[in-house]
Design brief:
binds (2R)-2-(alpha-D-glucopyranosyloxy)-3-hydroxypropanoic acid, two-stranded antiparallel sheet, single chain, mainly alpha, three-stranded antiparallel β-sheet, Glycosyltransferase, MGH1-like_GH, 9 strands, 4% strand
C-alpha cells in the first residue's frame, strides 16, 4: 500500500515535470526538442510532442502539427528541420542548408512521417469532436501530399518501400546499420566547420568527426545538385538505403491515414492508400533475413542487406506488417538481447562488438522507440514483453529524468536534458 502511494506520487511528479518541459520548450506554435542543443522545430519530434500536448492542451497540440505543415514544400516534402527563428547553438543551421523553396527556412531532407499517427491519436482522444474534425479536414490533404512525396521522390521504381538518402532522414543518425553504406569518399573540398553539439554534450555520446564529414559530404552534394531537387537526388546520392524506421512508420502512418480518410468519407484517397499498403507488404518481404530471424535495412546501391541488428528490426511489429511467424522469431531475438543488458530496448544488439552503451544510436535506449516496439508487441499478443518494456521505461524516467536517451546497462540518462519527446511519451504513453 505504502509503496503504491509512493509510486503514485513519483508518477504525479513525472507528469507535472513533463508538462513543465513542454511549456518551457514551447517557442510559440512549435516545441524545440531541447533548449540549446536543438533550437528549431524537428519533424518527428514535433509530431510525437503533439500527442503529449494533446493530454493537457488540445488546441496547442493541433497547433504543433499546423506549424509543422506550414513549411511544407510545394512538392509535398516536410523537412527534417524547420528553422523558424535564428539560433547559433546548432550546426548545420539554415545558412549551411541554404534551401531554395522557403529561403533558408528548412533543411533539404525529410524525417520519419509520424504526423498521421498523432493526428489519429488526437482525433480519437478529443473532447471536442466537431472542432477536431475540422482540424483533420485541413491537415488530411497535407499529410496525404507528404506520403505521396515519399513514394514519388524516394521510390520512383515502385518497389513498395522508400529510400532514405541521408542518415539524418532515418532519425537514427549514426546507427551501425549505415556503416557499410557510409564508406563513400569524404568530399575533399568540404569547407571547415565547427560542431555545436559538442558544446552541449560529451563527445563520447555523439557521432564521430568522420561520420559528420560524411553527413556534410552528402549535404553539400545535394545542395549543388540543383538545390535538393528530389528528382535528381535519388539518382545521384552515394547513400541510398531502405530504412526500417522510416518504412515501418510510413506503413503504420498509411494505416492511420486510411482510417482518417474513412472518417472523412474520402474514398479515392482510401483506394490510393490501400495501394501503398499492398505494395508495402510486398516490399517488406525483401527485408526479412530468415537466417537471423530479423528484419534488416538494405543498401539499394549494392542490393545487400545491412548486417547490423538494430532496434528498428522490431518496428515492423508496430507497422503491423510482420507475419505471425516473423513476430515469433523477433520475440525470440529480443528476449536474447535482453539477457545481455539490464534495460530494454537497446538500439543495437548488445552482442554486436560495435555496441556502445552511450553513443547515441549505437546502443542507448530511446523512449519513442520503446513505445513503438511495446505497442507492436501488444498488437501481436506478446503482452508480457510489452509490459516489460513499459515498466523499464517508467523506471528509467523515474531514475534518470526526462533525458534524450538512456544507458541500457546502467540506466543512466544521457544526451540532452529536459527533452521534449521523452516528456511527451511520459504524458501520452506511460501515465
Ligand atoms: C539531426 C532532434 C533530433 C532527432 C533525431 C536525432 C538527432 C539531429 C542531430 O536529434 O538528430 O537531425 O543533430 O543529432 O538523431 O532523431 O530528431 O531530437
Amino acid at each position: 500500500e505504502h509503496e503504491n502511494e509512493l509510486e503514485q506520487s513519483t508518477r504525479d511528479h513525472i507528469v507535472r515535470e513533463s508538462m513543465e518541459v513542454l511549456r518551457s520548450n514551447d517557442r510559440g506554435g512549435y516545441t524545440v526538442p531541447a533548449e540549446g542543443l536543438y533550437p528549431f522545430q524537428w519533424n518527428w519530434d514535433s509530431a510525437i510532442v503533439a500527442a503529449g500536448w494533446a493530454v493537457f492542451d488540445e488546441l496547442r497540440a493541433w497547433k504543433e502539427l499546423e506549424t509543422l505543415f506550414s513549411d511544407q514544400w510545394k512538392d509535398g516534402m516536410v523537412a527534417s528541420i524547420n528553422f523558424h527563428k535564428f539560433s547559433k547553438t546548432y550546426f548545420p543551421g539554415p545558412e549551411i542548408w541554404g534551401t531554395p523553396e522557403n529561403p533558408s527556412k528548412t533543411s533539404g531532407i525529410s524525417q520519419p512521417p509520424v504526423a498521421a499517427l498523432s493526428a489519429r491519436f488526437m482525433y480519437e482522444h478529443t473532447a471536442h469532436p466537431v472542432e477536431a474534425k475540422q482540424k483533420i479536414e485541413d491537415l488530411f490533404p497535407k499529410i496525404l501530399a507528404w506520403h505521396r512525396w515519399w513514394y514519388k521522390a524516394r521510390d520512383p521504381n515502385n518497389t513498395g518501400v522508400v529510400a532514405i538518402l541521408h542518415p539524418w532522414e532515418s532519425g537514427m543518425d549514426n546507427s551501425p546499420a549505415w556503416d557499410e553504406s557510409m564508406t563513400f569518399p569524404i568530399d575533399p573540398t568540404l569547407p571547415p566547420y565547427e560542431r555545436q553539439d559538442l558544446t552541449h554534450v560529451n563527445a563520447n555520446m555523439r557521432p564521430t568527426k568522420d561520420t559528420y564529414d560524411r553527413y556534410l559530404t552528402l549535404l553539400y552534394r545535394f545542395k549543388r545538385e540543383n538545390f535538393y531537387d528530389p528528382d535528381k537526388l535519388y539518382e545521384i546520392s552515394p547513400f541510398r538505403v531502405t530504412d526500417l524506421c522510416v518504412n515501418s512508420i510510413l506503413f503504420r502512418a498509411n494505416r492511420d491515414l486510411r482510417w482518417l480518410a474513412l472518417q472523412l468519407g474520402k474514398t479515392d484517397a482510401v483506394a490510393e492508400i490501400e495501394g501503398w499498403l499492398d505494395n508495402g507488404f510486398e516490399g517488406f518481404k525483401k527485408l526479412w533475413d530468415e537466417e537471423a530471424g530479423l528484419f534488416k535495412c538494405q543498401d539499394q546501391i549494392t542490393g545487400k542487406l545491412e548486417d547490423a541488428a538494430i532496434s528498428a528490426a522490431f518496428l515492423p511489429l508496430f507497422a503491423g506488417v510482420a507475419t505471425r511467424e516473423q513476430a515469433a522469431r523477433l520475440v525470440e531475438n529480443l528476449s536474447t538481447w535482453l539477457k545481455h543488458v539490464k534495460y530494454s530496448v537497446p538500439s543495437l544488439d548488445p552482442q554486436d562488438p560495435r555496441f556502445e552503451q552511450l553513443r547515441y544510436w549505437r546502443g542507448p535506449i530511446w523512449l519513442i522507440i520503446n513505445w513503438m516496439i511495446s505497442n507492436g508487441l501488444r498488437h501481436y499478443g506478446y503482452d508480457e514483453l510489452a509490459d516489460r518494456i513499459r515498466n523499464d521505461s517508467i523506471e528509467l524516467t523515474n531514475k534518470a529524468g526526462l533525458r534524450e536517451y538512456f544507458d541500457p546497462v546502467t540506466g543512466d540518462g544521457a544526451g540532452g536534458t529536459k527533452f521534449s519527446w521523452t516528456a511527451a511519451m511520459c504524458l501520452a504513453w506511460l501515465d
